[in-house]
Amino acid sequence: MLKQNTDKNTSFISLSEGEMELLDLLWKLGPSSLAVVHKNFCQHYGRKLGYTTIQTRLNRMVDKAVLTRSNDYPALYRAVVEIEVASNPFFEKVAKICGGSLAPLIAHLSERQKLKPDEIEMLKELIARNSNG
Length: 133
Fold this sequence. Notes:
The protein has 6 helices and 5 strands; from the N terminus they run βαβααβββααα. By secondary structure, it is mainly α. The protein has 2 domains: 13-85, Arc Repressor Mutant, subunit A (Orthogonal Bundle), CATH 1.10.10; 98-131, no CATH class. It has a 3-stranded antiparallel β-sheet. Strand 3 and strand 4 form a beta hairpin. The radius of gyration is 17 Å and the shape is elongated.
């Protein structure tokens, strides 16, 4: 598994929105077969996506070394990157729009949706880690 990205100069793995959705799903599910990923994707995101489309995306993510595929039958796909090394053009645009300042973005998002206690703790940990460096 790739180590957590702590170096601000480390390059990120660029993933499409669809790939990010699949990666997020595999982080939640753990190692899963194509059938399980397909079923959960359609249920979780409320839209139908073809079985072979999911398979193609998963295999491309294996080629990018974001996932592994077992030799079992059925094959199990497993996420092998941490969230910190996965990037997406959307997040890069948001960072550019915010001019490097996260506080207004976090404030805006927290006004639209109440933060859960574990999210508040995560933010506190991030603040503590960033203020000590």
